[in-house]
Amino acid sequence: MFDFDFEFYSPWFLLLFLLFIPLLIKDAATQKKKGIKVPTIKNMGESGGIKVVMFLLKISKYIILSALIIAMARPRTFTISQDRDDTKGIDIMLSVDVSLSMLAKDLTPDRLIALKDIAIKFVQKRPNDRIGLVTYSGEAFTKVPVTSDHQVVIDELQNLNPLELQPGTAIGEGLSVAVNHLKNSKAKSKIVILMTDGVNTIENAMPPALAAELAKNNNIKVYAIGIGTNGYALMPTQTDIFGDLVFTETEVKIDEPVLKEVAQMTGGRYFRATSNSSLEEVYDEINQLEKSDVKVSKLFNYQEYFKIFLWIALGMLFLDALLRWVFYKILS
């Protein structure tokens, strides 16, 4: 990750610009009192070239001093890069069920929005780990491969849409796609946080047990979370003539035996979240269970610009000397 910025290494030298105040006052008083004396060459008085030369001679000292002051203040830009050892961190894939049942209102305001908010907080608490995102319903899709750019993950979490994939719930597909992205990782620890609120409904999809076997063979731990209250909840079951979802009281069914088996096979754990607070507690517990010891250091790369202003001062000094020599040569 890179940040770009600008600074003066010695900004206190910029206070020398205050010296311009008495210089400007002195020049103004001198011009008002004496005017500009030019030797008596009548035709030169109206010459545009002479006026330009006189103006340059008048401001040259300010340009030279300004360039020298800025050079002493050392203007520079810098980039900040993060140096991290990924072999000591944790790579995390969030695998999120986005089937229509995630719009059930047993969590506030519904399961999907509650999950978004809590998952974003979880991401923000893991600044030193790489995190990715997979969404699934009847099919699975990689939203974000594991990355240290957490803002990308947060943006995609905020935009989760239960209508973008085929209907259904393919838990095994959601897990296997996440495993596929983690299997070649060199991280100290690799985990998948698998979230669902239903049962596996796609018969010809990857079986959850087989996906769990793949995770186990690649040293990937799975934390499974079942989302939903015990009993009944308002769920979208159909649409009305206007295309709006119709919610009806429906029994909450979560395939807990399958989720427990997946977690147990991979050395992870199964959690049940029946409310916003319990879902947040689940994420907090996972955050505590998976501690990262990666150390991130910042590297500063500077680009200095003081030489440019030294050349400006030197060039202007040469031009000033040349103009004075030529100008007074003509007038002598």
TrEMBL record:
Pfam families: VWA_2. SMART domains: VWA (SM00327). The chain crosses the membrane at residues 12-29, 50-73, 308-327. Residues 91-286 form the VWFA domain. Coiled coil: none annotated. PROSITE patterns: VWFA. InterPro entries: UPF0353/GerABKA_families (IPR050768), VWF_A (IPR002035), vWFA_dom_sf (IPR036465). Keywords: Cell membrane, Membrane, Transmembrane, Transmembrane helix. SUPFAM superfamilies: vWA-like. PANTHER family: LEUCINE ZIPPER PROTEIN 4, SPORE GERMINATION PROTEIN. This is Ca-activated chloride channel family protein.
